[in-house]
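hiii so um. not sure if this is the right channel but i have a protein structure encoded as tokens and i wanna go backwards to a sequence. like what aa goes where. can anyone help
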């Protein structure tokens, strides 16, 4: 089939290119609309108890407070006449803003928790209405009118709405910086890797087609479902990554054919038949890895499945159609504008260095593999102490406004800035039953007070008036203030304890709030993670069996990938959770980001399998041609080692550039992805694969007789 495809593209090269230009123009027009449809947030499970509690509060009680204005009195106390007047005016102005509800402040409630311990700060809280993107847009419009550093008071903004805006704004700035670093370096390395300006443009062709095409896909999906704005980042990173991988593979094979004396027609057909098969299986393995993100309910993770599967599929199609068409038109001119000192196009496909590495490892496989495995397992050890959490204001640099407000609330306020829970009943509750229930909750360790429509309770007793707006005919709301640190184990235990108490009058209760969201999100991802891992294992096993005809090769690949990825994840725990490089990278250590860890695993696993297929393809081709396993591995690594290491180095530059970010989860993703790629390309492919193949010998190609017959009927072997 691929041979026929190569022949078709060669005969209709200009038609293929013309259709591509038209399709690309249409995709570009459609893709421009993607940016206005993509959403922020998406870290929570929409079916979780905390999400349902938030929905009830939004629907019946005006919404949870997501905007905090920290009002500071530069001189004196917040109870002084001038500050009181300014605070009341600010509260009144905010109350009359459109799309803002549930406005309250220290000067309207006189709640002690809304004033700092030293009396120099107080807060105004409100709920900005809308979905994640609307909240961010409306907050961005509001804040310039309220945040001030002069006058009788200074005002700074915090709360989830402000944190989300700061994160999105900071990520945008950081990505611009990362791209300004990565793009020139990558462009230079592309020219050096390909040896000519013309050949170096081919990865960019694949990358542009994949990125623009995926933007069009995201634009369509964004109109019918929630898609995270961060899917754009994965699209650009993977588009360039696969462009480099596939272009290197195709150009190397095409040049190999030209050096061997083939004409352009046969060189194109052979390139599509051989390298094209590798690309098809590579794309299938990466798609299978990223598709598992669909099992998670958080649209943040599902969005990366949409983007990842789209960009991989489009990159593969571009590699199999557009690049052969360009090679047909260019022919030997693919080496045009060659660097004067470069010998890339003339030195042949074999890398003497990688041949020596493979030969050395093959002679002493145990001696070569043991130190590498021991080092990787040692780096993986911090995984034993991993704790998972969700991103909050601590991912921002210490100088960010919303981060400073959160720190002030945490350090200077008694209860308000600490862990809290919002409780809603799922049915009506009488006043007496509500008081009894609130008393039970207020008696739990760590609870400062519980505010209800029937009063405020502390340590099991009524201590003050309630909030009239907390009572509805068919539901009640309770607000729990604590002295526990937000997202601590104690705060999590409190949420779990509240959830065990029967609701008033036998009604059900929903417990929400920041700590409840973290518990639910982590539990949601954890409960589905075994399913995702199982799907990855099964799909990878099936694809690699179809590719190699062996049941040993998939097992070997999965074991070696697990070792490499464990080392990468262990290093990320050591750096970002344990904080060993916090001073150098400028972040605050905190629990490992659950969503970003899952994303990092899937992306790194997919790219690792990409390199696995590239190397195994050549080994199998040589073995099927009559070479022994040892000779096939040595020659296979000699012919693909340069491709894999060059592609990995180019991609690592792009990912490591994210390390310049001041948002810690972006740093983690960039550094983790770059490290995973280099570990896989150098240590796993360069040492562990040849060592394991040498140890396995003929067993490396074993399959039971029924499966051998099944593989033969698949007709997926090299022609």
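sure thing!! here u go:
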């Amino acid at each position: 089939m691929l041979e026929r495809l190569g022949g078709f593209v060669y005969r209709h090269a200009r038609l293929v290119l013309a259709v591509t230009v038209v399709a690309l123009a249409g995709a570009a027009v459609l893709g421009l609309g993607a940016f206005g449809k993509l959403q922020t947030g998406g870290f929570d499970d929409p079916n979780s108890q905390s999400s349902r509690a938030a929905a009830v509060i939004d629907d019946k009680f005006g919404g949870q407070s997501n905007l905090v204005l920290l009002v500071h009195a530069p001189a004196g106390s917040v109870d002084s006449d001038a500050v009181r007047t300014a605070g009341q005016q600010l509260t009144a102005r905010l109350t009359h803003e459109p799309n803002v509800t549930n406005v309250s402040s220290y000067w309207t409630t006189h709640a002690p928790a809304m004033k700092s311990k030293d009396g120099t700060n107080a807060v105004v809280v409100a709920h900005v209405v809308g979905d994640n993107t609307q909240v961010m847009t409306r907050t961005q419009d509001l804040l310039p009118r309220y945040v001030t550093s002069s006058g009788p008071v200074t005002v700074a903004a915090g709360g989830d709405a402000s944190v989300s805006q700061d994160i999105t704004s900071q990520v945008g700035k950081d990505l611009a910086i990362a791209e300004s670093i990565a793009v020139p370096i990558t462009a230079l390395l592309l020219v050096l890797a390909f040896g000519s300006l013309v050949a170096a443009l081919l990865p960019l062709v694949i990358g542009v087609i994949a990125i623009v095409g995926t933007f069009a896909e995201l634009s369509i999906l964004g109109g019918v479902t929630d898609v995270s704005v961060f899917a754009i980042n994965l699209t650009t990173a993977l588009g360039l990554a696969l462009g480099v991988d596939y272009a290197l593979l195709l150009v190397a094979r095409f040049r190999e054919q030209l050096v061997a004396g083939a004409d352009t027609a046969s060189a194109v057909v052979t390139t599509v038949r051989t390298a094209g098969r590798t690309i098809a299986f590579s794309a299938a393995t990466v798609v299978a890895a990223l598709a598992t993100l669909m099992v998670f309910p958080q649209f943040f993770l599902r969005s990366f499945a949409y983007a990842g599967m789209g960009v991989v599929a489009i990159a593969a199609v571009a590699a199999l159609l557009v690049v052969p068409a360009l090679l047909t038109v260019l022919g030997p001119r693919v080496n045009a504008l060659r660097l004067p000192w470069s010998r890339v196009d003339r030195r042949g496909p074999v890398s003497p260095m990688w041949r020596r590495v493979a030969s050395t490892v093959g002679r002493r496989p145990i001696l070569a593999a043991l130190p590498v495995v021991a080092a990787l397992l040692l780096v993986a050890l911090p995984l034993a102490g991993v704790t998972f959490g969700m991103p909050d204001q601590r991912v921002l640099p210490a100088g960010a406004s919303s981060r400073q407000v959160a720190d002030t609330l945490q350090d200077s306020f008694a209860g308000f800035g600490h862990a809290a829970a919002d409780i809603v009943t799922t049915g009506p509750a009488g006043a007496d039953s509500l008081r009894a229930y609130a008393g039970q909750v207020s008696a739990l360790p760590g609870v400062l007070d519980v505010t209800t429509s029937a009063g405020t309770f502390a340590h099991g007793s009524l201590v003050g008036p309630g909030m009239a707006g907390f009572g509805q005919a068919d539901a009640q709301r309770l607000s729990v203030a604590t002295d526990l640190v937000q997202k601590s184990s104690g705060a999590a235990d409190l949420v779990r304890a509240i959830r065990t108490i029967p609701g008033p009058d036998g009604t059900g209760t929903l417990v929400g709030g920041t700590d409840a969201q973290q518990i639910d999100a982590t539990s949601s991802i954890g409960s589905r993670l075994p399913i995702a891992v199982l799907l990855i294992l099964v799909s990878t096993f099936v694809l690699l069996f179809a590719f190699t005809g062996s049941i040993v090769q998939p097992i070997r690949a999965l074991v070696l990938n697990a070792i490499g990825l464990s080392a990468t994840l262990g290093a990320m725990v050591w750096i970002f959770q344990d904080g060993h490089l916090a001073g150098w990278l400028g972040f605050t250590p905190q629990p490992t980001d659950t969503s970003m860890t899952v994303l990092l695993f899937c992306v790194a696993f997919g790219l690792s399998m990409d390199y696995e297929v590239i190397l195994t393809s050549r080994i199998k081709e040589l073995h099927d041609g009559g070479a022994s396993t040892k000779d096939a591995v040595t020659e296979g690594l000699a012919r693909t080692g340069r491709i894999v290491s060059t592609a990995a180095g180019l991609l690592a530059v792009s990912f490591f550039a994210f390390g310049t970010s001041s948002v810690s989860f972006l740093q983690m993703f960039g550094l983790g992805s770059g490290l995973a790629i280099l570990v896989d390309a150098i240590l796993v492919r360069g040492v562990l694969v040849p060592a394991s193949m040498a140890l396995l010998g003929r067993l490396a190609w074993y399959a039971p007789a029924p499966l051998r017959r099944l593989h033969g009927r698949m007709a997926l072997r090299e022609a």
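oh and The first strand starts at residue 67 and ends at 72.
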